[in-house]
Every structure is written in structure tokens, then in C-alpha cells.
Amino acid sequence: MDFSYDDEQNALRQAVSGLLGRAYDGEKRRAVVAADPGFDEKTWAGLAEMGLLGLPFAEERGGAGAGQVEVAIVAEEIGRVLAPEPYVQAVVLTGGLIDAVATDAQCDELVAGLAEGSLVPAFAHAEPGTRWSTAAAGVRAVEEGGTWRLTGVKEPVPNGARADVLVVSAIDEAAGGATRLFVVRADAEGLTRVGYRTHDGTRAAKVELAGTPAEPLGEGADDRTAAIERAQALARIAYAHESIGAMATALTTTTEYLRTRKQFGVTLNKFQALTFRAADMYVSLELARSTALWASLVAGAGGDVVTAADRARLQTSRAGRHIGKDAIQLHGGIGVTAEYTVGHYTSRLTAIDHVLGDGDWALDRLAATVGDHETVDPLGAPYT
Amino acid sequence: MDFSYDDEQNALRQAVSGLLGRAYDGEKRRAVVAADPGFDEKTWAGLAEMGLLGLPFAEERGGAGAGQVEVAIVAEEIGRVLAPEPYVQAVVLTGGLIDAVATDAQCDELVAGLAEGSLVPAFAHAEPGTRWSTAAAGVRAVEEGGTWRLTGVKEPVPNGARADVLVVSAIDEAAGGATRLFVVRADAEGLTRVGYRTHDGTRAAKVELAGTPAEPLGEGADDRTAAIERAQALARIAYAHESIGAMATALTTTTEYLRTRKQFGVTLNKFQALTFRAADMYVSLELARSTALWASLVAGAGGDVVTAADRARLQTSRAGRHIGKDAIQLHGGIGVTAEYTVGHYTSRLTAIDHVLGDGDWALDRLAATVGDHETVDPLGAPYT
Amino acid sequence: MRLQLSPEDEAFRQEMRTFFTTKVPQATRDAVAARRDVGREQYVETQRILNAAGLAVPHWPVEWGGRDWTPLQRHIWREEMQLACVPEPLAFNTSMIGPVIAAFGDDAQKQRFLPATANLDIWWCQGFSEPDAGSDLASLRTTAVREGDEYVVNGQKTWTTLGQYADWIFCLVRTDPTAEKKQRGISMLVFPMDTPGVTLRPIELIDGGFEVNEVFFEDVRVPAEYLIGEENRGWDYAKFLLGNERAGIARVGATKRLLADAKQLATEVRADGRPLSEDPRMAARIAELENELLALELTALRVVAHSTDGKPHPASSVLKLRGSELQQAATELIVDIAGPLSLASFAGEDSQVPEWARAATPEYLNYRKVTIYGGSNEVQRTIIAGTILGL
Amino acid sequence: MRLQLSPEDEAFRQEMRTFFTTKVPQATRDAVAARRDVGREQYVETQRILNAAGLAVPHWPVEWGGRDWTPLQRHIWREEMQLACVPEPLAFNTSMIGPVIAAFGDDAQKQRFLPATANLDIWWCQGFSEPDAGSDLASLRTTAVREGDEYVVNGQKTWTTLGQYADWIFCLVRTDPTAEKKQRGISMLVFPMDTPGVTLRPIELIDGGFEVNEVFFEDVRVPAEYLIGEENRGWDYAKFLLGNERAGIARVGATKRLLADAKQLATEVRADGRPLSEDPRMAARIAELENELLALELTALRVVAHSTDGKPHPASSVLKLRGSELQQAATELIVDIAGPLSLASFAGEDSQVPEWARAATPEYLNYRKVTIYGGSNEVQRTIIAGTILGL
């Protein structure tokens, strides 16, 4: 057991932090998120150049063959400066799904394109009638004369308008109602995408498919919910780290404010009720950090990544709400303005909390199996 | 709508407070609860003399014909000094059940005896296999040759060893498994009672019935769970007031301690983190007080007393835990000693919380019907 | 003690309920119900309807439109208004500057301002907070120097809510910088927002909306007749103003509406094949919130019953503290009911995500303000600990 | 980074697990499991078994019985001990006075005390707190005046845990009342509890048990050779002692046992005709607590991994703070599972209420202490805010 970063990992963190720190110091983020596509294409290219967009994929597929801990480092640095680049969505979730399911030929195009920065994929999965499900519901896939066509609406689809290629989940009635995955090109006929800004400055879209031609992802007509579950679990873990980065900045921003802001003739850190709340924020942060880190290690060790991801999600959801709320409260009025940074952290934490299942959702899943084990051994089965 | 006490009510409070204040100032309570029966027979007689033991019963039955608010005043003053006399158990719960169900002849003996202080009744209802139920489970009632006989175990029975007469709930298989009520005399054959001290200084007992002769309470073979439900609801409301009294003293004891105890050269009320916690305790207390008071008024107005009692119980359970815990914490080490008073308040609040359903239990019942109304109107149906 | 309303109060409640649900335009009430922004015109139109019926400023002196109601009647009036989704009369006019002018203004000021204030012919905004004087209001630095018949005002105010709609501003300014206690050198001035030297800068909030502003004063010349009351007594007037009409701060009616909406929405959203409302933990969460709101409402009624002497009851702080927490809890609940749909926050009308789900998170974020403004909850705890508990 | 234990550590864990579950008498472990009081004899017997196997004082210097283990090994040792319901070696001996004597005592003291301390031949108790010096330890007033070869001690200590079992006491006393900083005039003395002038008064706790005491000193004559280290440097030794061996304070293993018990008990208690464990809100409550405990355990492992320099990691305060809260939450959970049965708290053996349910509330009440002792949680928050966050 070893919870310390090695030299290479520290170097990676420094490199990512350098790139993103330059890209988003001061007011730059507000300008970037004000205009479509809601992130900076140059920074995206920079991430690609550094090899970060192919980080988790095998070298023979154009990736770097790195582990979960490396992905976690990037996600944490993304969170630290609220970089709006869709790293977790494009690389971990969509890229991970492609990598797990696609044919070699598809990977040659899609994974390699993602890794080199030339192709941004998005996963069109959520539907207005579903709730953090692994299955599709209203979108249908039908084969006619050798061509698969999709019909229905996906929304909200993170980065759905900007994406160069969409991975779309759909019900195949011919395969017994299985949820299958398809690749839809940006220029496909019958594809309508209406993008919009979301509260955290990123982008989502309504994606309408009207007999839109699509290519099955991978071979066979298998139900893909297990692959979706696993990719979502890895994305939850990466998001946990993005949250940790955001919480860490929210906390340091708050403590800095308490040290410098004066009220009633003294700096705010003279008020014990406030400093104690900051201490409680630190406790929440460190406990969440431990859990997120552990979940990454479980993924690397080949353990039960789905349960580990639920555990990380529950802990970071609770911590994110606690820290997000109190960071604003301890700032007072300035905390709710868009001109000051701390509120954006709260906004982003709230978005992450709702993107792939919130804390109560994860808790429901954990509660359903709480009787199956006597105690939790983080270093033993089923996690290692 | 009027939430203020009238002159008579204020006089009642003063009288009760005078009696109990004299009985339990200083160390007197510790001496009283150290010896059986766990309360002071003289104080009980004093309560009877003042007419408090017959407060809610009709004058023609030997009572005072007073309302729920008067009962609440007595209960609150009981709580304020932690008087160990079983007022809510004997008068509100057991007495209320007798008053609601018994024949006139039974009332002439039992209610009158209770009111004049000569007879302490107890309700033997809980069984090791039940959980805050209105029904009996393991204790059976069988009629043989005109004599009813009860068999089974009741435990824990509050004041079960001291009681002069027991009201026992039992299953009558001949009446389709109905829960019926019976009167069992202290000297009945086959009755074994083993009393013990409980953590809050009061007494409970294991009551074993082995073919014990018993007299049906009231006429007819009706199932009595509705009457039990109602009597329990009124007892929950009275307990809510007893809790309010206890919380109020726990809070004033705490604020007094913060004002006088010195640490690091200053009194504790100079530490904002501590005074803010005291402020939060006050908020909990006042919100609980409002709910308890309202529930008493609902009972008086003939409204849905069962739901109102659940609402009062939920609110006082949460407040009691909050105040009980923080009162000790703000005291530090002295708070966990039996030689200082505040811990006893926490102990008593914990006992009350578990005697007729705890906060989560009440919340489950409220949650089951939360969809039945759009909003709660405390001044409208079904509460008035 | 009596639970029921008296027949008179019951009739009063019915009268209010009928008025609010029939006389205020449905479109305006729908906008409030859907938690859409209400525009300046809708505010003005509503307040004029209320004022015409004597329902805009019932707590003012009778000669200026007040109604001499009991505290309970005022409470019922306000709660019914919130339950009916009626935009409340503008607080800056009716609860703040109006009562101050009625109490401390001279006759000319009363004649000139009070009718127009009640009718929202003048839209007032507040100039109290400054960038370096938030909760510590007495540290304000905006100066007013007397020059002949005028004051010359220089400085900066912030958190001026709806200043973009305002015709006039009421301001705290420092008129005696040499006063020993910093509270003693403060005065209250009023002047039009279009006076030369006044500029306004809107502040974007984290929900993307604009409701507060910075207001800058550069050699603003204000006629001395716009001084309210006496010079250097502005602190007293500010305290009077801030302590005034605390009864409404619990916002029970508004939170009741949020909760009622949440309940309905939870029946519409499906999770794992059944309505979310049937999830035991969601049902318990709603039921607990509903019970806490009941406790708050009952506490408000107790406070109302004991505030006949006109002074704010010390437990008012409980109402602000808990009322703001419950407002926030209700908006958080709605975000969680929306779940993944909450991510479509700024989608357009053609979105398949319902409007309420799109509005949920921006509203949740916006509501972070309610534990900060109107005396932050830290200030309320200080009041409770000091004034009530003697700590 | 690596999740798995190394093969050596895995083998070490197995070795510990096997030892604790086979070499410590079952009756003693059953008593701990049932949360009954463990008597003096069982403590002594257990510690001697551990000491004979080199498992009582592994963190001491090797020459006095220490093992030179890694921090992780010490962590595993302690957690496995708690999981196996083994009474831990007496902290006053092994974590407090032992390390102080090993670090600051003279050779004679080491020879005389350390082996007997490791083997619990001497049972030590602590004389630090005083009635008017709780968290503010440096204000202590017990005096020791040098007279020839002796110190004469007068004063009073309190919160002396298990003093009723103790052979010796280690005390902080004021030897220089004129010192400018009150911390500077303090020394550490040790002496037998049966020295003339020492009296002990047990303090009853709210659970009815006796575990702490007041200790009074009236002209107690202590040979000067019982001074530990240098005169007037006692504060340094106390700080060393209190900072020592923070790794165990999370008590994860013990809370794991409580939670595992709670889960089992919830399957045995029936509510509304089904096991309480199947109630969705009860299951969620347990699962959330379990997840919080996991987070705490992982944090303890992170701290362990970074404490090779021997100094307590600043995040140790997180472990104490959260660890004590979770212990309390687990005992509260068990009371709530017991529900109405919890009211039979002091029933006898013939009760039909199971023993665990009778013990539940007294234990819950007793556990209120864990957020108070060992540096109250307010002290821990002060440390986090000051040392870690720089506030």
C-alpha cells in the first residue's frame, strides 16, 4: 500500500497545472465560457500535445497507456482552475466507452483522433425520461437495408453541439430491447443539435435524431449497459477528482478571504465561528480526497470499480455541497457575484454532482447491498 | 388564534413549579431516584392534592375537567426539573386509556383512585418483539369458565413494579386476534414483576403473566388499537412538553456555564463558536416549543391529534438530540458526570425519545401521507 | 389559548385569498409560480392594484394609507399574498423608506413622497452597504458635505437591489467625519437616480441574472430639503428601518409554494420505473422539510401574537435564520428532483427539459443570497446569543 | 501509488489477526464484543500476553521492547487488535509515560520503570487536568515545593481515568510559581498512589459507571529521584506525550465492530413485520455511516503513509475529530435499533430484552466523552484552522 505520488506523477501534475494555470489565470475563464463552444480550442490542442487526451488508452491505439492515477491528476488540475475543457466527458466517459467497445478500425479513427485532439466525441445518452440510467429509453435503432437509423431525442448532451462525433445509445427492439451504441457523424442527415450554455459555463445540447444514419459501435448486437456502467463508473471517479480540485481552490480562496477581509475593525479570521467552519470544510475535503484517491487505485487494481465509484461519488457529493455552500456563505455578498470566482466553483460542483448520479442516488445503491458484507476492507476483496 | 396563556394557566404553572421546585432543588433528585420506586411518594401525593393527577378527567369522574394546555403546563414543569414522578405514563397514557375505554364502574374506582393519588396505574403494553406498535403480540387472553386469564411477557413496562394496577393489552384469538385491554391487580396470582432502574433514573419492569386472572377494561370484545393510538398520541404530545421543559433547563444551564466558566483567562462566552452553538440550540428549542404547543391545541380543538402528535414528536426528537448532545459538549468533561445536572437532562431526553416512537419512526408515518395534501395549514383542516 | 382563527380573522383570510387570486393578473401570478423574473411593469401594475384596494401599505399610519390591522391580520395578508404568488409590494418603498419618512420626515416630505411611494409612482432603491462595510454598516465612507443649501455627495454604494429600475435612492452618508462614535456622524439623504454624478453599474450574479448594482456618486449635489429627519441621526433611522416589519422575513408562504411544487414535480419525475415521490427517502426528505416549515410558521404566529407593542420580537432572528435556511433547502430539493435534467439550465423554449428543471439550479444558486442579506445568519446568531441568551 | 499491501505487510496482517484471535482469551474478547466492562485482571492478563509476544509496546525504542515497525505496521497492529476485540495495551503506560521515560528519564528510571510499565506490572494513571484547568492545561495549580531530597505536593487533579486501578501516577505540578510564562514553571513527577497524603474520589458518570476520579494531594512527599527529566521542563514532556502516537485515535477498527454489530442487530429486530435492516432509510443510514468510516480509514492510511518522520501529521486532528464523531454516531445508531428495548437499560439477566439493547443507551451516553477528552473537538478545530489553514 502506498498513497504517495511518484516523481513522474508529480511532474505530470506540474505540467498540467502550468498549462491550465496560464490558460485560466485571472479573468480569462469568464471570456472563454462566454463564447461557444464554451472552452478554449487552443487549450484543448495543448492538452493533446501534452498527450493528456490519450492518457488512459493503449499506446498502440495512439494513447499513452497511463493509469487511473494519472487521469485523476489531470482531472484534479482541471477542477482546480475550473478549466471548461470537457476532459472527463470526452476522454474518460466517451473515449473510455469507445475504447472498451469499438472495433479496432473504429478505434484507429476515433481513439486516435481524440488523442491527437482532432476529434472531440460526446456521449449522447441521457433522455428527459431517464434518470442516471445505464439504458436508453426513448431513442430507437432500426436497421433498414443494411443501414442503421436512429430516431428520438437525447437531452441534455454535454458538449453535444460542438462534438465532431456522437456516441449514441439506443434501444434495439430486434435485439430484445437491448441498449446498443452507435456512432453518429456531425454531418449526418436528420441530425439536429441545439446547443446552450449551462449554469456552470459549460455547454450542453438537445440532440434530435430523425431516422439519422448511424454505425454500430463495436461488433455484435450485445446489450452494452455493462460497458456503459463501467465507463460511467470511471467517469464518476474522474469527476470526484475534478471536484476535489475545485473544492481545494474554493477552500483556499475562502481562507485567503478570511485572512484579509476586515469587518468591525479586524480581519475575519478573528471570528472563531468562521474559522471553525473553515476547519470543518477542510475535514470534508480531506475525507473526500482519500475516497477519490482510493477509488482510482481500485480501478487500477482491477477491483469492483462500480462500487468504489459509488463510494467516491457519495463522499464527494456531500463534501461538494458542504464546501460549495459554506465557501459562499463565508464570503458574504461577494460570493454570489459572477465577478468573483468562488461562486463559479459552487456552480461547477453542483453541475458535477448531478451529471452522473448525485450522492443520494449513490447511497441508494450502496444501501441495497449494505447487508452483503460484515465490514468494508478497503485493501481487500472486492476492491483489490 | 391565540397562543398566550391566560391568568389561570399562569397560576397553575406557578403552583406546579413551586411544588416541584421545592421537591427537586439541588441534590434531592439524585437521592429520590436512587431508591425504589424511583419517585417521591410525598410529591406524588402533593400533585394529587393540587388536583393535577385528575387534571384531564371529567369532574363527575373525580377529575378537574381541564384541557390539554393545562396538562402540557404540568408536563413542561415536570421536565424542567426532571421530576421522576410518572405523570405522563400514569395520568395521560394509562389514565387516558382507562377514561376512554372503561365502564363507569371501573372509572369510579380507577380514575378516581388515580386522581386522589391512592392508586398508581401503569400500561403494560410493549413486548420484546414489538416496536412502538398499537397492537399486542405475544400476550394472549383466554376466557375459561367466566374468568379471563392472561399469559405472556410484557417488557419494558414503565413503573410496572410499583403500579397498584396494570392495564394490560393482549390478543384475544376468540375475537379474531383483536388487541383487547384488561385490568390486572397487583396481587393477582401468576403475576411476576421484576423492576429495575433505567438509565434516566426512572423505573421499568418485566411483567410476566402466567394464566393471570384479569378483568376486561370496558365492555364488548372490540379491538382497542384505535383507543391505544389516541392515548399514545396524547401521551406523545405531553412528552413533547416534558421534553421542552427539559431542553429549556439544559439550555439555561449551558448558557449560565458559558457565562461563568473560565478557560484561557476568559469566560467561555467570549468564544464565538460556542455562543453560536448556543444560539442554534435556542432555535431548535423554540421551533419545537411551537410545534408542541400547537399539537396540544389541536387536541383541544378536536383535530387530527394522531398526526399532530407525530409532528410534535418528530420536531422534539430532533431538538432533544441536538440540545442534549450540545449541552454536554459545551460543558466539557463535567457534562458527562452524574454529579452535575446537565447529563441527566440528556439521559431523560434520550429516554423520552424512545418511549413511544422516535423521530425517524414519526417521520416514516408522516412521509407515508405527505402526498395527500398540497400544503400544511396549521389553522385549518384536518387540525381544527 | 385557542387554535382557530376568530370568525373575523377567518373572514379576513377569505377576503384576502379571494382578492389576491381574482384581482391580480393571472399572467403575473403564473410568472411568480414558475419562478420566472417579474419585470418592472408587473411589479408596478400589481402594487397599484393593491394600493387602490388599500392593500399595499397596511402597516403605515392610517392617514397615509395604513389600516390599523392587528399583527395577525398583517401576517395573514402577507402569507396569503405569497401563497397566491402575488409579487409583494416593493419592500424598499413600503417597509423601508416609507415608514421612515412617515415617522421622521417633515410635512413637505410626507406630502411629496408617501402617496407616490405607496403607489410605486416612485421606485426606491437602497444605498446602505459599501464595498468595505458589509455587515459592519457603521464603517461606511460615502461623504456628504454641506455647501449652502446643498449636500455634495461622494462615494460608492453596493448591493443596491433593483437599482436599475429605481427612480430615487435613500442613502446613508457620513456628514460628520469627526464624530467620536462612527455611528454618530451618519445622515440619511434621498435623491433622484438621474441626478448628475450618479452612475450605476449592474453586478452579474452567479445565476447569470442582474438584480444588484454598484452605485457611484461623484460630486452629486443634493438639495438640503432631501435630508430626512435631523443631520447626524441617520443611524437611528437606519436601525428603525431595519428592525421594521420583521414579520414577513420568515417567508413561510413562499416556501410553502416551493414545497408544494416540489411534491407535485416529484410525482412527475420517474426513477427506476416509479414516481420519485414514492421513493421512501425522497418522501421522508419532503415530509421533514414540511414539518420544519410548519414549526417555523407556528413560531411566526407566536411572534406575531406577542408583537403588539410594535417592537420586533427578539425571536424575529429565529424567523430570519430558519426561514432563509428552509428557502435554501427547498430550492436544493427541487434541483435534486430535477436530477440530470438540471444540467439543461439555459436551454431554450424548444428544449424537451421542462422549464422548472431548467430554472432549478440558477434559482438554487441565486438563493445562496438569502442567508447573507437582510442581516446575515451570522449576525442573527450574534443577536440571539447576545440579546436573548445574554452571552 | 499502490492499493494492495505488500506481501510482507499482508503476511504481517495475517500474523496479527491470527495472534489476536487465538492467543487472547475468548472470554475477554467476548466481553469487549458485548461492550461489557473489562476488569483490571483481564487488562493485565491481556497486556502480559501481548508483551510476552512483543506486541505490547512496538513503538518504543527497540532496547525497551520496541519493534522498529513501519507506521503502516503499527496501524495494522492496532486496527487488527480492535477488530478482534482485544483490549488495547493501557495507553497511560504504553503511549504516555513509557515513551516519556524512554526519551527523558535517567538510566535508573528506565531500568526501574520501563519493563514493568510494558508488562503492566505497574498500572499508571494520569494527573494532568485540574478542576479549573481543563482544555487550558497550563493554568494548573497543583504545587510541588522542594524540601531537601523531596518534593512536597499539594493540590488536586481530576478526570484521572481508571485511577482506582492504578499503582502509580504521573503528574504535572507547578515547581516555579514565579516563572514568567505559566508553561515554564511546570515539572513532571511520578509517585505511588499509596503514598501518604494521596486520596482518590471516584466520579460517577451519567451511564452509572465509574472510570474517572478526582485525586487529592495533601503534603505528599515525593523523593526527588521521581522527577522525570529536568525541573520546570514538564510542559515540554507533556506536549511530547500528548502528541505521541496519534495514529490510533481514529479508532476505525473499534467503530467497524460497532457498525458490524449494528448491521447484524438490525436484521434481528423486526419493525412492521420485516427486519429493520430492510427499512430503506435504516439501510441508507447504515450505508452512509459505513462510507464515512471508510473515508476516515483511508485518511488514516494516508496519514500513516506520511508520518515516517515521527512527528504527528497535522491531519491527525481530522482523525480525532471525525473518528470521535463516528464513534458517537455508531452508538446512537444502536440505541435507535434497540428502540423501545433501549428503555430496559439496567434490567437484570432474567430480562427478555437482549443484553445489547440494555447496554445501548448507557454506552451512548458514556460515548459523549469521546468528543471531549484527548483534546476536545473544539481544540482540534482550533488546530486545523490555525496550523493547517493558517487562520
TrEMBL record, chains A, B:
Keyword Oxidoreductase: yes
Record bears the keyword Oxidoreductase: yes
Entry superkingdom: Bacteria
Known cofactor(s): FAD
InterPro entries named among the record's database cross-references: Acyl-CoA_Oxase/DH_mid-dom_sf (IPR046373), AcylCo_DH-like_C (IPR036250), AcylCo_DH/oxidase_C (IPR009075), AcylCoA_DH/ox_N (IPR013786), AcylCoA_DH/ox_N_sf (IPR037069), AcylCoA_DH/oxidase_NM_dom_sf (IPR009100)
Domain Acyl-CoA dehydrogenase/oxidase C-terminal: 233-359
Any Pfam family hit: Acyl-CoA_dh_N
Domain Acyl-CoA dehydrogenase/oxidase N-terminal: 7-117
Alphabetical UniProt keywords: FAD, Flavoprotein, Oxidoreductase
Signal sequence, renumbered to the chain: none
UniProt cross-references to CDD domains, sorted A to Z: ACAD
Family: Belongs to the acyl-CoA dehydrogenase family.
Protein name, entry field: Acyl-CoA dehydrogenase family protein
Organism: Pseudonocardia humida
UniProtKB/TrEMBL annotation, chains C, D:
Ranges of residues in domain Acyl-CoA dehydrogenase/oxidase C-terminal: 232-387
Keyword Cell wall biogenesis/degradation on entry: no
SUPFAM superfamilies referenced in this protein's UniProt entry, alphabetically: Acyl-CoA dehydrogenase C-terminal domain-like, Acyl-CoA dehydrogenase NM domain-like
Domain Acyl-CoA dehydrogenase/oxidase N-terminal: 6-119
Entry-linked InterPro entries: Acyl-CoA_Oxase/DH_mid-dom, Acyl-CoA_Oxase/DH_mid-dom_sf, AcylCo_DH-like_C, AcylCo_DH/oxidase_C, AcylCoA_DH/ox_N, AcylCoA_DH/ox_N_sf, AcylCoA_DH/oxidase_NM_dom_sf, Mycobact_Acyl-CoA_DH
Domain Acyl-CoA oxidase/dehydrogenase middle: 125-220
UniProtKB keywords: FAD, Flavoprotein, Oxidoreductase
Highest taxon in the source lineage: Bacteria
Necessary cofactors: FAD
A Pfam family this chain is assigned to: Acyl-CoA_dh_M
Family the UniProt entry places it in: Belongs to the acyl-CoA dehydrogenase family.
Protein name (record): Acyl-CoA dehydrogenase family protein
Species, as recorded: Pseudonocardia humida
